[in-house]
Write a structure and sequence with these properties.
The protein has a single domain (47-206), classed as MOB kinase activator (Butyryl-CoA Dehydrogenase, subunit A, domain 3), CATH 1.20.140. It has 8 helices and 2 strands, in the order H-H-H-H-E-E-H-H-H-H. Helix content is 56%, strand content 2%. Pfam families: Mob1_phocein.
């Protein structure tokens, strides 16, 4: 359908040969070792902002792909509100185009969210891809907002579409991606605990397996 291709954002590529590309390769190599707690740690001598930037782009791409596999199940009819279980409902505002939070369907919300994230990632003043270009002073708060919002897509998939994920045999992929994401945001304290509440039990389960 046309909608799924619209929500499915093009992959954000990190330029080959750049330092960020090297960092991404490092991240992928350490991920392969299977020790996710170690994989998320800041590599020695690296800039924290740059490490967070590279991983944020990577999580955007992963979530984009994961959501892309279930868009046909996430429709205006099946998901008239953006929720993560009965107790959590999200309304969309980006502070610029939509200042007052609006209630919208999950596919609409996720489309707004992914488009908004993509615009942030494409903004060279926020996410500089050239070496030596400094990160802006507000980089950390921008990254935290992006990650907080990306978490909501995981939360929606787990609460509303896990059956579809299992039918597609994507659950191992989803769980690994989410575990990586959670260990990363925990390592650098990037998402407020309250925001993680919709998946708290799962987060505790993932963490306890790894102790």
């Amino acid at each position: 359908s046309s909608r799924s291709s619209k929500t499915f954002k093009p992959k954000k590529n990190i330029p080959e040969g750049s330092h960020q590309y090297e960092l991404l390769k490092h991240a992928e190599a350490t991920l392969g070792s299977g020790n996710l707690r170690q994989a998320v740690m800041l590599p020695e001598g690296e800039d924290l902002n740059e490490w967070i930037a590279v991983n944020t782009v990577d999580f955007f791409n992963q979530i984009n792909m994961l959501y892309g596999t279930i868009t046909e199940f996430c429709t205006e009819a099946s998901c008239p509100v953006m929720s993560a279980g009965p107790r959590y409902e999200y309304h969309w505002a980006d502070g610029t185009n939509i200042k007052k939070p609006i209630k919208c369907s999950a596919p609409k919300y996720i489309d707004y969210l992914m488009t908004w994230v993509q615009d942030q990632l494409d903004d060279e003043t926020l996410f500089p891809s050239k070496i030596g270009v400094p990160f802006p002073k507000n980089f950390m708060s921008v990254a935290k907002t992006i990650l907080k919002r990306l978490f909501r897509v995981y939360a929606h998939i787990y609460h509303q579409h896990f059956d579809s994920v299992m039918q597609l045999q994507e659950e191992a992929h989803l769980n690994t991606s989410f575990k990586h994401f959670i260990f990363f945001v925990q390592e650098f304290n990037l998402i407020d605990r309250r925001e993680l509440a919709p998946l708290q039990e799962l987060i505790e389960k993932l963490g306890s397996k790894d102790r």
